[in-house]
Amino acid sequence: MSITVNLYAAARHAAKTSSISVDAATLSELKSELIKQAPDLAAVLAQCSFIVDGLSMGKDRDCDVNSEQRIDVMPPFSGG
After folding, report:
1. Which of 15, 21, 76, 77 is the most buried (most CB within 10 A)?
2. pTM
3. How far apart are CA 61 and CA 58, in angstroms?
4. Domain limits at 59?
């Protein structure tokens, strides 16, 4: 199943695109597929949080994913 993953900030810069579509059944598989398609994401993803339908999965949690969910990759950021 093809899942569109939205990339922001440093993740977008590393991938040179704002979104990538991958086939995956879990968040772990999704991360691996992202790196296969955009190898420069490897260093950035280690620091990113994954947001699945508005719920933070943090950096290390795994869950099932599907094409109907919104998945965002959020690098750490600061600001006021």
Report:
1. 15
2. 0.90
3. 6
4. 2-74
